[in-house]
Amino acid sequence: MLREVLETAGHAVVEADSLAAARQALREARPELVLTDLRLPDGDGLAVLNDARDADSTLPVVVMTAYGGVQDAVAAMKAGALDFLAKPVDPDYLLLLVERALTARRLANENILLKEELAARRGAPRLIGEDPALRRVLAELQRAAGTDATVLLLGESGTGKELFARTLHALSRRVDGPFVAVNCAAIPATLLETELFGYEKGAFTGATARKPGRFELAHRGTLFLDEIGDLPLPLQAKILRVLEEHRFERVGGTATLQVDVRIVAATNRNLTAAVAARAFREDLFFRLSVVPITIPPLRDRPGDVPMLARYFVERFCRDLNRPPLMLSPDAIDALQRYRWPGNVRELQNCIERAVILADGHVIEARQLNLQPAPAAVAAAPPAGEPADPDPWSRIDLSGTLADVSQRVLREVERRKLQLALARTGGDRARMCEELGTTAKGLASRLRDLGLE
């Protein structure tokens, strides 16, 4: 009778005559609402309620029984039931209750989506991982977020330092203000000053109008200075002044501007060594590293690799309008065994390439195209394994001297290029700068070594 009432009102109904059948229906049908009797042949409705809540904590459940009473109603509501019905059930009241429940569920889902969209617009990122090292970093970020102290993010290239900087901003009281990012290594030194501080009209040829700099744009928000280790020495003094006084002048201007900006800096360089080499100001280093936070490399949290890989597969399938793909057990094993010199960025690029090239519903290990670990990484064996006393014993010394030299040189070039690809995310301009070669020469070597 209940099924006919609900179907007549336009609802699709799945029936179950026992607790076992109900559990199977919850797994297979994924209903929008559960209506269960309190008494079942092999259990009770409270067990159905608990299973429904375990499957989806927002799933509304209505419990009904002919043995109604205050105790049953209280027990069901305490366990999370939406409502309690006594039989015989009034069809009109049932339909009203179902409509209310479905409307509330739809509004709850819309609210979740709106919150996610708002968070994305504000720049709140999604950090993925359960490794204790990552949890410690998040705890440090949360403690730092409650202050306006300058934070220095340290870590290898590709570990996601900007993502952590955005997280810090999203957790801080400045979340409603702007988050402005500047890559100090990507902007030519001659333009970086005007990019940071802006300029007045007529300050130089081509300055036809006043332009605000990144410090002004970040007022009452957060300014993220990525690759701060590449900041030219003349600019370091100006950055120090802003950190200490929160004042600066635009290029070509005389008026002193005051800003309320929280600085977050990041680098993959050893700033202590740079200070010792007089390539970085000691006073600026101490001013930046009020709260230093080191982000662990991906190889130090291998348990997070499958989780990250599945997230990237899902994301790229969605972005590329592809049917859902799965990673085979062999692919997961290969991902966990690889050392990831390029960290999360390299993993992301690897998965994107695999999704594009996948020709079925499963990504196999061979489609990941993971190369052997570079020599610098391979030279450091995993904990507990003995080190190779003579790594040169692995080199093929057959043939003439010229043959051996050519073979070793080719392998060294290949591994160096692999590292550069991982570090730069395939950015050819950055690779040329890092390797000291031309775009034409780089393209030729990549093609010759099968890395293009």
CATH class descriptor name of the largest domain = Alpha Beta
| Secondary-structure content class | alpha/beta
Uncertain regions: pLDDT < 50 for 5+ in a row?
Answer: 373-389
In order across it, which strands form the biggest sheet?
7-10-13-6-14
Shape: extended
Strands, count: 16
CATH fold node name of the largest domain: Rossmann fold
Q: How confident overall, as mean pLDDT?
A: 82
The rounded distance between the terminal residues' Cα atoms is 67 Å
- What is the CATH-assigned architecture of the largest domain? 3-Layer(aba) Sandwich
Number of domains: 4
The amount of helix comes to: 40-55%
Q: What Rg, in angstroms, do the CA atoms define?
A: 30 Å
CATH superfamily of the largest domain: P-loop containing nucleotide triphosphate hydrolases
Sheet having the most strands? 5 strands, parallel
